[in-house]
Design a protein that fits this description.
mainly alpha; MetI-like fold; two-stranded antiparallel sheet; about 75% helix
Length: about 325
């Protein structure tokens, strides 16, 4: 390129940069305040949780997470410790994520290896429609249908304090797992779809059958399976409505899955409305909420990183 052309192109770039600095993008002026407001709201929520829970951390110390005693009192400050609800949260989320991951793999393999195009065109939108259902619908279905089935199965007799209503850690984990399965299926399906067609074509040329192709491709996107499980865990750990309706709401350690129990979210939902009547309870619930936020945020962040890395590997890029 000639020197005069280089000078002309540099001048145009400088003029464009000056024009952009002089006249801010109107879209930026609209979007920037929204982004700033969102960050400010998140910071305000975090500040409320931290400052509101200080009293509990001072009075209870590490014992807040190391004991299950929950003894409200109207006359004096009660004892509030959340080991049982925290353990219940981990157990329910673990059951839910295992169920969701299994269903996600089954759905992805069926849609991509076995389902005719017309069936796939019907099933995929249906999954998103299921994911859009209000959580209270799943909760009501779990309470009216799943819990009675668990009760009639007689599995509660395996526990010393088995649930007479069918509401239990297992029931909550099962219903939540079915509810979040479409989210997990979307992660696995996207990673499955990201595998270059040359690999799929090579498998067809070798005469690989559906299950053989699925085994190879799932091996290539195994990171997405882990990501789906971790994301499902984070989603399930923060679920409130479904769990509150199906877990039984009793302060029990989850030694038996068919006993009623609490998760952190169900404890907050059932107790926060009357917390002002009991000295120290509101602070304890805010501290429990802070712990739940940290657990859910950590698992969601890890799951997103694993999902991005899995998709990059499937496409042949570097993680």
């Amino acid at each position: 390129m000639k020197p005069d052309l280089l000078r002309a192109s540099g001048s145009r770039r400088n003029a464009l940069a000056t024009h952009m600095r002089a006249k801010p993008d109107p879209l930026l002026l609209i979007l920037a305040p929204s982004a700033i407001a969102l960050l400010a709201i998140s910071a305000a929520i975090a500040a409320v949780l931290v400052t509101g829970s200080l009293d509990t951390w001072i009075h209870e110390g590490p014992g807040f997470l190391a004991s299950s005693e929950w003894s409200p009192s109207e006359e004096r400050r009660g004892t509030y410790r959340v080991l049982a609800p925290l353990a219940g949260t981990l157990v329910v989320a673990g059951i839910a994520s295992a169920i969701a991951a299994y269903l996600a793999v089954a759905v992805a393999v069926y849609l991509h290896e076995y389902a005719p195009r017309r069936v796939r065109e019907v099933v995929e939108p249906s999954l998103y429609s299921i994911a859009a259902l209000p959580t209270v619908v799943f909760g009501m279905w779990g309470l009216s249908t799943v819990a009675p089935l668990v009760r009639q199965s007689g599995l509660a007799s395996l526990c010393a304090r088995g649930s007479p209503t069918g509401q239990s850690f297992f029931t909550a984990g099962l219903v939540v797992g079915l509810m979040i399965a479409p989210y997990a299926a979307a992660v696995v399906s996207e990673a499955y779809r990201a595998v270059p067609f040359t690999y799929v074509e090579a498998l067809y040329s070798l005469g690989a059958k559906g299950f053989e192709r699925a085994r190879v491709i799932l091996g290539m996107v195994k990171g997405s399976l882990l990501a789906a499980a971790v994301l499902s865990f984070g989603r399930a750990a923060g679920e409130t409505t479904v769990v509150t309706l199906t877990v039984g709401n009793a302060v029990n350690m989850p030694f038996c899955l068919f006993e009623p129990g609490h998760t952190v979210s169900s404890l907050i939902a059932s107790q926060f409305g009357n917390a002002y009547l009991y000295p120290g309870m509101e602070s304890a619930l805010l501290a429990a909420a802070l712990v739940m936020v940290l657990v859910s945020s950590a698992s969601t962040t890890l799951g997103l990183k694993l999902a991005r890395a899995a998709i990059k590997r499937a496409r042949g890029g570097e993680a």
